Amino acid sequence: MNTGIMPPAVIPWNVLWKAPMDPRLIAFIAIAATLILVGILLHFQRRRGPEQPTKHLLEVGSFIAGIASALAAILFPLLSAPTSASQPPSAEPPTSAPASTPPTPIAPDTPGATSTPEPAAPYVEEHRDIPFTIRTAHDGRNCDPYISIDFDGGLSADRPITTRIVDEDELTTAQREAGDMFYVTCSNAELRASQNASVGLLRDGKNATPEQCAAAASASSLGNLDITKDAHPDDIGFTEGSAICALTPDNRLARATITKITYNAGIGNRIPTVEFSLSTWTIGGSG
After folding, report:
1. Which of 8, 87, 191, 216 could form a disulfide with 225 if both were Cys (CB 3.0 to 4.6 A apart)?
2. Are residue 156 and residue 239 in the same domain, yes or no?
3. pLDDT tens for each residue of 94-132
4. Are residues 71 and 129 in the same domain?
């Protein structure tokens, strides 16, 4: 049967004696030690003196008072420790101040959260899958006309991707330097990288990342590439699905993926028409 009386809490000794000592407890211990020491000194003095055959009242009193003080020092932690029985009954459990906890960080996707802005992506997509085609510019009389390929060109008519060049002397310096590659056809078909250009061929590069394409371009592996049919350009990776990667003077990365190769020109149909799909990125968000 529940009597409503809570049993006294049992407090381990190691918990009691690890707590900071009360000044009153220290006083009890000091008094006990002093009185017991006085009793011991009187006891030895009485034994040395034959004139005191019986116990001295002060000796007995010192021992008794010292032992009482020692008992008080021992019982003081137990008597002063709070118990559940001494607490007034309450319909609700006592509440305490919430413990101090470090603030919980807000997840970046939580509304109102603040986070350090991420650095700008090194490559920012500009154009994707712009189709263009290179074919022979040879008119059957001489080998001068050729195709200039400008990977900085785009959808604007003012700066197309490909331009048929008949007479270089009629070009401005800017037009002459705009070409990243040239398609020259006469008896053979050659893709030529412009001077100081960073152009590379990436086998199966249609799904290459900008980083992979930039690495291929930085290798500058393309100089003059003979893509005539009997030169077997597929042996070096010039096949459908491969990509030409270039780093342009306008701080742009270009990936021209080969989508189709058709040998339909020249003697014996040895000269190819090549279709590309051009994607470009600005580097470091420029442009």
Report:
1. 191
2. yes
3. 455 555 555 544 444 444 445 555 555 689 999 999 999
4. no
Structural domain ending residue among the three candidates 85, 114, 135: 85
Q: How many CB atoms lie within 10 A of CB 49?
A: 10
Q: Is residue 174 a part of any domain in this protein?
A: yes
DSSP summary character for residue 230: G
Average pLDDT estimate for 144-160:
84
How many domains does one find in the chain? 2
DSSP state of 159: S
Q: Is the pTM of this model over 0.70?
A: no
Q: Are 268 and 203 found together in one domain?
A: yes
Q: Are both 152 and 208 inside the same structural domain?
A: yes
Q: What is the mean pLDDT of the chain?
A: 75
The pair of structure tokens assigned to 158 is 């003012």
Angle between helices 23-48 and 57-80 (to 10 degrees): 160
Whether the predicted pLDDT of 20 surpasses 90: no
Alpha helices by DSSP H, listed for the chain, are 13-18, 23-48, 57-80, 173-178, 210-218
Give the position of tokens 């034994």: 47
User: Which has more confidence, 49 or 221?
Assistant: 221
Give me the domain span that covers residue 56: 13-85
In a domain? residue 70? yes
Q: Which of 274, 264, 155, 255 is nearest to 215 (CA)?
A: 255
Residue 36's pLDDT is 72
